[in-house]
Design brief:
heterodimer, A: mainly alpha, 7 helices, 73% helix, B: alpha+beta, 6-stranded mixed beta sheet
């Protein structure tokens, strides 16, 4: 006797729509594909369990918050990782080096700073939306964004000056 | 190329591969968690239990089903008729009494569903995906017994993996096979 909750189709739609972006954001925060898969799965599971209680129109914001909190919890549990070993083989060394530089710079950032970057530049959220998702003042989001970008730029500049090949 | 574009390209290129969360697994895990949350309803519960229906007399049917209600039919029910129009509430009480004969009569029996932690309206009993019976067990504590449909495609109900919530790191949850289902007890 197959009976499903009335809201389940809406959940499935949400899953399909957000699956890839959650995975991408989780990867940007955790720097590990395996950890990102786990975090995204945990987030979607938590959303399913609470779905009927999430206020209408709040699913996106709530989901982002759960994702970020899950990633931060995973990050604290696992400790920092510099995922160089996970980089796929690429034919162009320059591209390879740039990816390394980006990942290396990310590894030096705090989990919240990574979250700020991911939400601002992968999810294309406004400062106000990022502030709401992370429970931070807008000014803090701006300063964290600026600091994280400066760190990224510094790492990329260093890479360009010291080519590996 | 701008810095933010470089960042975006890097992350997108590294995550452009198969894999990721699986919908079916997510729904199965989510349903297990929703059921688990119901087990601790009421805060002061001493024990909560689940009896799943696998036939054997406990049948929740579609809204088109016509149910016989011993209470309404005046057939001298041994158990209180909490929900007019169905016999499931009496059946649940009888099942519990069969396994826990020292319990006092149920304080409350109501239909519920996956959308709701507590009762749904009695008139909607045909939409129920589970039924709950509440018993006073003294010292202000209550026992809730939950009789649920087996979730389609899900494993038989059981205890959470890695359960060490009991005394001295022992499992807080135990399962007992009974005719027609399984009782999951979580202290």
């Amino acid at each position: 006797m197959a009976r499903t909750p009335r809201w389940e189709p809406a959940y499935c739609e949400f899953f399909a729509a957000r699956r890839r972006s959650y995975l991408r954001t989780a990867y940007a925060m955790l720097g590990s594909w395996t950890a990102a898969e786990d975090a995204a799965q945990q987030t979607f599971t938590a959303l399913y369990a609470r779905w009927p209680r999430i206020a209408a129109g709040q699913v996106e914001a709530y989901g982002r918050r759960v994702l970020v909190n899950t990633c931060i919890a995973v990050y604290r549990h696992r400790g920092r990782e510099v995922p160089r070993a996970e980089l796929p083989e690429v034919g162009v060394w320059e591209e390879h080096d740039q990816r390394l530089a980006v990942l290396s710079a990310l590894a030096d950032l705090s989990a919240r700073d990574r979250a700020v970057l991911a939400l601002r530049f992968l999810e294309d959220l406004s400062v106000a939306e990022v502030a709401a998702a992370l429970g931070l003042p807008e000014g803090t989001v701006k300063s964290r964004t600026s600091r994280a970008l400066a760190r990224l730029q510094q790492e990329l500049d260093t890479t360009r000056k010291e080519p590996t090949s | 190329m701008s810095l933010t574009q470089q960042y975006r390209d890097t992350i997108e290129s590294l995550t452009d591969r198969p894999g990721g969360p699986d919908l079916e697994a997510t729904i199965a895990a989510g349903r297990r968690r929703r059921r688990g949350r119901r087990l601790v309803l009421g805060g002061g519960l001493a024990v909560a239990a689940v009896v799943t229906t696998v036939g054997a007399g406990y049948v929740l049917r579609s809204p088109a089903t016509t149910a016989v209600d011993p209470g309404a039919a005046g057939a001298g029910p041994a158990y209180r008729d909490f929900v007019p129009g169905t016999a499931i509430d009496e059946q649940l009480q009888a099942t519990v009494a069969g396994h826990l004969p020292t319990l006092t009569p149920a304080a409350e029996v109501y239909p519920s569903d996956w959308n709701t932690d507590g009762p749904i309206a009695d008139a909607r009993f045909a939409d129920a995906t589970d039924w709950q019976a509440v018993y006073d067990v003294g010292s202000g504590q209550r026992l809730t017994v939950l009789m649920a449909l087996r979730v389609p495609g899900a494993d038989a109900p059981g205890c959470p993996a890695g359960d060490t919530g009991g005394r001295a790191g022992q499992p807080a949850c135990t399962t007992v096979d009974v005719p027609g289902g399984v009782v999951v007890a979580d202290s």
